[in-house]
Specification:
147 residues; alpha/beta; CBS-domain; four-stranded mixed sheet; 5 helices; 7 strands; elongated
């Protein structure tokens, strides 16, 4: 469940931080996972990308639909490449204390759908997606907001 689902009551949206929006239960994958497995989870799960973690839990990259399509256009068989082979290295991340307006600017400037939330050691603790921020905005700015 997303933390934003528990947000109740009007508040100053601009003062909110990543920890108030993030999804804590995140699907992540390892550098050794194959491209076809990653393509499967991305398409079946409705994700545009998935984080790639090292064995110590640190985010080392991201595999997106773009990365998978690029591998295909380069003539690679997805079953024979790994996440480590095709990932975009050095994934962009934020901390739990990152202000929401900074996250929005980052998502817009880098054309991202979601960004990993990491702790002080660089280990992933959650994900914040554009949709989470939009829902948080509605919940924070409307006295009673329902679907």
């Amino acid at each position: 469940m997303r933390r934003v689902d528990y947000m109740i009551g009007v508040r100053d949206f601009a003062t909110l931080k990543a920890e108030q929006f993030m999804e804590e239960v995140v699907s992540y994958y390892r550098v050794e996972d194959t491209g076809d497995r990653l393509a499967g989870v991305i398409t079946e799960g409705g994700f545009g990308s998935v984080p790639i973690l090292a064995s110590d839990g640190k985010v080392v990259g991201i595999v997106s639909e773009f990365d998978l399509l690029k591998a295909i256009t380069e003539g690679k068989e997805l079953s024979k490449v790994t996440g480590g082979d095709i990932m975009t290295k050095g994934a962009i991340s934020v901390t739990q204390d990152t202000p929401v307006m900074e996250i929005i600017q980052l998502l817009q400037s880098k054309h991202l759908i979601r960004v990993a939330v990491v702790d002080a050691e660089g280990k992933m603790v959650g994900i914040v997606a554009r949709r989470d921020i939009l829902l948080g905005y509605l919940r924070a700015t409307k006295p009673i907001w329902t679907f």
